[in-house]
Amino acid sequence: MVNGGVEKGSRIPIILVGNKSDLQVGSSMDVILPIMNQFSEIETCVECSAKNLKNISELFYYAQKAVLHPTAPLYDPEEKQLKPACARALTRIFNLSDQDNNQILSDDELNYFQKSCFGNPLAPQALEDVKMVVWKNTTDGVQDNGLTLNGFLFLNTLFIQRGRHETTWTILRRFGYDDELELTDDYLYPQFRLPPGCSTELNHLGYQFLQRLFEKHDKDQDGALSPTELQNFFSVFPRVPWGPELYHTVCTTDKGLLSLHGFLCQWTLVAYLDVRHCLECLGYLGYPILSEQDSQTQALTGLPRQEPRGEWLLPSPAALRQGIPAEQEAELADALGTVPCHASFRLLPQLYEVSADTRFAKPSDAACDVACFIYDVSDPRSFSYCASIYKQHYMDSQIPCVFVASKTDLPEASQQPGLSPAEFCYKHCLPPPFLFSCHGQGPPSTAVYTKLATAATFPHLNAVELGAASFWLRVALGATVTALVGFTLYRVLTKNK
Fold this sequence. Notes:
The chain is of the alpha/beta class and 497 residues long.
């Protein structure tokens, strides 16, 4: 035999071909079947005839199939079950596809899986037929009208036993596996072009993906991952990439559990220090499939590298200082000039003030990481001007925007006819106007700066309530050095004031 001196696990697939079948009456399969049962590497047997072209095309089809979709890595015909490596790979695929982490693939999850692997969802009747086959042949393959892990494994075993190896191979290759059932380098380490002198950080797509996974594995919904929940999170990895030192390097809860803040801080650090390892981890987590992206590189952004600063300095815009007595100027500068953060590194953002008379000649003139519109609540025409600038330059862009209502210590004037500031922000899916006043007990609040930095760092949060702004900002600053470019657009008074 061809594989006589080869290890059992790495044997070459074999096809038995009986030629000149035109010279024989009947079939010789009764003689061949015992041989096929004796040697598991025999994929199939074909009787053909070159004279009358019987089964010639089938011969080449089965030969191609044996190479592209081999049985040997998937199935042990002697034990009549999936091989351990195949079962492990399919278990990982099941866990990734179980998006609500209830150990059952619902109809929606099955259709998402089917569409990801084969391009189209299953028809409702076909879906029910699949579950019925599993239910009839297993004791626990179907629960709560969904497919369990055992049911999923049985279904793939059935595909292989019925000669449909290509179905299981299509699933495996969609999730990055090669013929040896290892994740390919092309999948784990996609090419990521980083310009010289730049550092890497997760963008809003990456943070959104990781937050969804955190919430998926936070089974008790206490805002933290217990050791068991963290182990479940890493079940799709060949080995746990974080050791016990994790709990000494990032923020934890009062009970010593890994909080969302600490979780995202650790990922920020990984992306900054080792982009290759970050890509690998996102690959194990199934980022390309679950996020419907080409590769993990879509979750990362390259930024010019900056040296760490001793503190995070923010200039104090004149728009927020206007009308403050001279004796309070120094106090305000101290309050707004230095914004502490929970980190060993700080950032040096740049805020640019743009007057009401500024005209944007081209789209790049309005480009920024966050736009801040400051209006005077005591001026009935102030907000309408800000709203017009927003509609003209920012409404259809992806730039996060924050409206700040200044001089809230003064009586609020009725704005010009139209939507109120709160209604306007609600209509355009913006956070409600942030209230700010320089007059009050104690130093002025620095929360407006935190909100701007948060919106710039996590632009995807701009459409939801940013009440936990300081939390998100600490996440961004937890373990990285990056550059943040701010931008302020304001009009406090009309030209005649």
